Amino acid sequence: MKKIIAAAAFVAAALTVSTAPQGAWAATPSPPGAYAYIGYPNDGQVVPANKPFRVWFGLRFMGVAPKGVKYPNTGHHHLLIDTDLPPMDQEIPSDRHHLHFGAGETETMISLPPGKHTLQLLMGDDMHMPHNPPVYSKKITVIAR
Questions:
Q1: Cis peptide before 41 (omega within 30 of 0)
Q2: pLDDT tops 70 at residue 109
Q3: Burial state string for 31-40 with b = 16 or more CB within 10 A and e = fewer than 16
Q4: In the chain, what is the straight-line distance between the N-terminal and C-terminal CA atoms, in Å?
Q5: What are the DSSP calls for 32-92, one per residue?
Q6: Residue 103 burial (CB < 10 Å; 0-12/13-18/19+)?
Q7: 3-class DSSP state for residue 135?
Q8: 6/26 Cα distance (integer angstroms)
Q9: Beta bridge partner(s), residue 49
Q10: Which domains does the chain have, with CATH numbers?
C-alpha cells in the first residue's frame, strides 16, 4: 500500500499549480508544495457531446488514499463540473456538480451536453473535507460538440 501511495505522488509533470492561502479551520494539513492538475483533457479542448470521454487527474507531492483512510499527506479527488470551489471550511458537497472519487480513483469517464463546461479538481481528506491549505487545480474549460 505504501508503494502505491508513493507512486501516486510522483505522477507526470504538472500542467497546473494552485493552492490557496491557509485558512482558520482545523482541517487535515496538506504537504508543502502539493498541487492537483487535470492531465486530460486540456484547457480549451473540444470533447464529444453526450458521449463519454476520459478525465485524468494529476497530483504532485501528495498521495491518494480512499475515503476513510487517514494517512499523512494523502487525500482523494473531487471533480467539480460547471461550479466554483465550495467553502473550504465545510465538507465537499456530493451532487452532479461535485463528483467524489472516494475509492482513490485517478481518472473517470464523464459525458457532457453540448456547450462550454468547466472542470476543476479539489482534494479532500479522509472525511471529504478540503485540506489546509486546500489543494485544487486550475479551472479549465472544455467545449462539448
A1: yes
A2: yes
A3: eeebbbbbbe
A4: 40
A5: TT-EEEEEESPTT-EE-BTS-EEEEEEEESSEE--TT---TTEEEEEEEESSPPPPTTSPP
A6: exposed
A7: strand
A8: 26
A9: 112
A10: 2-144 (2.60.40.10)
pLDDT in tens, 124-140: 999 999 999 999 999 99
- Say how far apart CA 101 and CA 67 lie, in whole Å: 8
Confidence of residue 21 (pLDDT cuts 50, 70, 90): very low
- Read off the C-alpha cell for 52: 463519454
The length of the chain in residues reads 145
What whole-number distance in Å separates Cα of residue 78 and Cα of residue 96?
A: 11
| pLDDT tens per residue across span 54-66 | 999 999 999 999 9
